[in-house]
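My current task is to audit a protein record that another person submitted. Please read both lines and tell me whether the tokens look consistent with the sequence. Do not assume that whoever made the record got everything right. I have pasted the whole thing underneath without changing anything:

===
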Amino acid sequence: MNQANSVWRPDAFSTKRVVVVGGSSGIGLEIARGFGALGGDVVALGSNEDKLQVAQAESGNAGIRFERIDVRDSQAVADRFAEFADLDVLVNAAGVARPAREHDIDVCLDVIDINLNGTARVCMAAREALRREDGPMTSIVNIASMLSYFGDAAVPGYCASKGGVVQLTRSLAHAYASDGIRVNAIAPGYIDTDMTHAQKEDPDFDAAVLRRSAIQRWGETEDLVGAAVFLASSAAEFITGATLAVDGGYGVG
């Protein structure tokens, strides 16, 4: 059972339109499923056509609409979000890491363009659809990382971009509050996804993660759902500009 089902009533987001960018796999897909399980009208946007088709065909994703978008394309992002008359929740989960290769400047800049600039493009393009003059505030949830705070020699572009996501979140929280929009972020720790598969399969790396983590396990994508739902819900109505660590205690180890 999806984690969200055990915490929130099944119709908690039944009147809400939710967009998850980076929603075709990994953390983004699990969050899209979480909002869908709570009644949300969910659109998941991703860049990989093959992944989108696979996700659309999975029975567990019934009710979620999957569409392609390249967050590096400012005009495409602006055009797509102009089609939404209104939104209630935006989750920015599009992200890449390219270990070791990020010391090539072109690769480094591309990672930053996807992770940081892409998040900024989407937030700015979605602002009008999220705007509310009265009633409950709408919500943006960005996906940062524990590497927003720690350095990692293999992924300088990823670290720089995720540090930027935290600062972007803080700045937009101030800029968008008068529009009735809250802006927060989640900073995942080591989560078992396709992107971290090689690290988890490395015995030395795996052991180092477990030694430092208070809960002594890798996170699962499902571990991010409750945090995203909470930050988007009325329970977090007085929270904006925050970055919530979901890392099993790795950051305090």
Q: What stands out?
A: The chain has one domain: 3-245. Residues 105-130 form the longest helix (26 residues). The chain has eight helices and seven strands.
